[in-house]
From TrEMBL:
Tubulin is the major constituent of microtubules, a cylinder consisting of laterally associated linear protofilaments composed of alpha- and beta-tubulin heterodimers. Microtubules grow by the addition of GTP-tubulin dimers to the microtubule end, where a stabilizing cap forms. Below the cap, tubulin dimers are in GDP-bound state, owing to GTPase activity of alpha-tubulin. One of its GO terms (biological process) is microtubule-based process. It comes from the Eukaryota. This is Beta-tubulin.
Amino acid sequence: MPKPIEATQTPPTAASTIEAKLSSQSTNKILDELYRGLNIFYDEGANGQYVPRTIMADLDHSSLDSIMSNQEIGKWFRPDYSLGSTGSSGNNWAKGYYTEGPELAELVMDVVRKSAESCDCIQGFQIFHSIGGGCGSGMGCFITNRLQDEYGGAMIMTNSVFPSTKTVDSVLAPYNSVLTLHHLIENVQMVNCFDNHALNQISQKLFRIESPEMVDLNEIVAQSVTGITSSFRFSGIINSDLRKMATNLVPFPRAHFFMNSLSPLGSSFDNSDLKVEQITSQLFNPNHFLVDANPKNGKYLTASVIFRGDVSSSSAEEQVNGILQRDSSYFYKSIPNNLQTSICKVAPPGIKRTGTLIANSTSILTIFRQLSSSFSMLFKRKAFMKSFEIEGMDELEFSEAISNLNDLIAEYELQEYEQDNHINVDDEELGGGESEHVE
């Protein structure tokens, strides 16, 4: 016998019943997506606990010890996937690549093979490293080369932290950075660029942290990566895997260095209900880029805006098209549809909507030129070369590295020149030239 409806209750209508059902279906769909996304970066253990498919390696084991001993986050990672040694790279690329690094790198590759066996289909690898020191640069290059040799069909995307262009992190940083870039140009399909100066500026000016610590900088990088990979972890229209992302964002094979920006950032986090218009505006604001290069000093070859949360496709397209019309001179005209939009309905916790911009822009030349100049100032005097030579390097490797970087700079400059020339030719075709008169 059905339960009678009490006088204080409102009888359910067909509309409210359908709405409740749709809400339940929507919640279940989101939960299904969350569980599906877990399998992208996590392994399910025997006890049902999900463990990150993350391998951590450092020649100085103290940094790993601080992670694994942390009661909040240490329990998330597998102890046998945390690999350290008692040596040190001494901020020397050659030690990481030739002497101290290879032995530890082979242990890393053993764990990679073990982890790869549990995957149904390997899309690729993500590498997080710094390029100004010795371990992240030298050993990072060694591991990248081994991954390329053993898993040639898989994509490799690095999240690379560049040394500060304003302050000296290490006197060897220009050498280490250029030697690393030499390998990133040849053996990696995509590089997300960050630099310490830009991250510090965002922490100080937008988050108002007077003296940012490493955890503050890492949190910004982490937020960027969660936005970039949201289309991998949840259903989306474009960039649903690493290969599709490279297809959409890399028009020329060697031009695969990206600049990223985020919204909201800093005090705007206090207002977790930013409108799509505000998010889009902030994404193209130079102060929100995570690398110390102004995008208005170059041209966007390609770009992808990823919205997360409560965002309609019509409002997203309207705002992005507005950017294209307003700032058309900053976009490469020869590549049609080079600014794409993607929407992920799952927002980060506590925020109604966010945005991430992945930009392949020629303004990255700012960073490359500064590194080339700093490298050349040291190299022409053969400064500090001895510390690399005793580790087994010779001068030719330095010459090849700086030559490769300068070639990349020339390739980016060529794209800027052709774009400017393309605009001038179009202007002439529209009536800028003189007409002939026949008697």
